[in-house]
Amino acid sequence: MENNKIFSKVFMWMFIGLLVTFLTGYIVSINDTMIYNIFSKGTYFLLVILELVLVIVLSARIHKMQTTTARILFILYSFVTGLTFGSIFVVYSITSIMLVFIIAAVLFGIFALIGNFTKLDLTKIGTILLMLLLGVVICTIVNMFLNNSMFDLVVSCISIAIFLGFVAYDIQKIKKLSLEIEDENKLAIIGALELYLDFINIFLDLLRVFGDRD
Question: Which residue, among 159, 208, 177, 200, has the nearest Cα to 10 in the 3D structure?
Answer without folding.
Answer: 177
